[in-house]
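Example 4.3 (complexes with small molecules)
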Amino acid sequence: MNKNSSNIMALAPTTSNKRETVCIFGTGDFGRALGHKMIQSGYPVVFGSRSTQASNLIPKDAEVLSHAEAAQKATIIIIAIQREHYNFLTSLAEILHGKVLVDISNNLKLNQYPESNAEYLAQLVPGAKVVKAFNTVSAWALQSGTLDASRQVFVCGDDMEAKQMVMDIVRALGLTPLDQGSLLAAQEIENYPLQLFPMWKFPILLSLGLVAFFFFYCLIRDIIYPYVYENKDFSFFIAISIPNRICPILALILLALVYLPGVLAAIIQLYRGTKYRRFPDWLDKWMLCRKQLGLVALAFASLHVLFTLVIPIRSFVRWRISSQIVSQVLNNKTEPLNNTNAWLSDSYLALGILGFFLFVLLGITSLPSVSNNVNWREFRFVQSKLGYLTLILCTAHTMVYGGKWFLSPSSYRWYLPSAYMLSLIVPCAVLVVKFVLIFPCLDKPLTRIRQGWERNPQYSE
Ligand code: NAP
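Answer. The structure with NAP bound is encoded below.
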């Protein structure tokens, strides 16, 4: 009987056009924006406010009453008030008994209070059914209708029926409710809008650090050194040459750093002989941001492609080519085609093009819309097998770039090797260790460990 009536309730808003009155406490920015959206969606709205005077800002179809009067007109009451002002609700405890109170509040800092605002509200008005919702939607987005980026509304609460009622409202507003479980989830939901690209922090800080390091490294080798020893001013290298040196270096190092934690995890599991012991925290965090590391690497690789495309139109490059031609004309001597150089240059370009193509493919498959359409095995194939192939191609591209001068002592300036040589350290280390790990004597025990086998079982039968 109950089940049937709840079904009828859920269908009611769509079949008849009558919607239940919703009460909103607080006529601030969020209260007004939400009230406006609700009226548009066909809900009668009544505001509960400290002042019942009419105001131009309040949607004209809404009533403004005192808190007590407004609360009596609706089952669902949205508390659009800052947590610090919740105290007055205790005096309304009797009227609010049995009502659904929707907590939409946010805080200024992560974990600002020991308990979530929603749990605090539930403590203040124990007879009410508290549901957390709407806190991830901004008043501006509600008002302007630009909800594309924040269409998801996290909902949590201990009373299933109350939660369902709130989720129906969310749907009626054209938003997508995501049930996050009981009120215990409220703290996490409240922390969500305060996070600033949490998974991107490490990749971006690391990239900035590496960019700064390689910028000064190239500055010393490519600008200061020729100025000191040959009195040549190559300061214009700062605009294109140095960025086009830093971008591929960063792309390669960051791509290698995507695969390094997997290799370290394998070594740790082999050493411990079990997969049931937690990795160190830093390794866990590193593994979680591999996708972001890869996307930053792809951004640097794309910049490298763009910088490379403009090389032929650079004034310095055109001057160098024409002066070589002029010197051949003056000496009346045509340089013969150097086959080795031609091979090196073509191989270098081919490896770069193939590496970049696979790099883009990896980036595309990491997009949720694409990864949702492949199964786990396909995803692993692309991200792992094609990923390693990309790393091999890009590493080879960098090695061939060095050509005949690769590892040659003459390319050292002030004992500093070329920057691209430094960029090869991490990828080569990853590839060598990965190569060692695929030997059957290591691969077999590792596969068994990953299937649950333990060298020294913790719980013997
Ligand atoms: P606001 O503009 O400062 O409005 C808060 C309202 O609370 C006031 O207009 C007032 O309404 C009422 N109020 C203030 N002091 C009070 C007191 N001592 N006792 C009782 N009522 C009091 O804030 P808001 O931006 O609308 O935010 C309201 C809540 O929504 C906050 O918890 C916030 O975290 C949350 N939120 C806001 C946004 C947003 O984009 N703004 C987004 C998500 C969540 P009356 O004058 O009508 O009494």
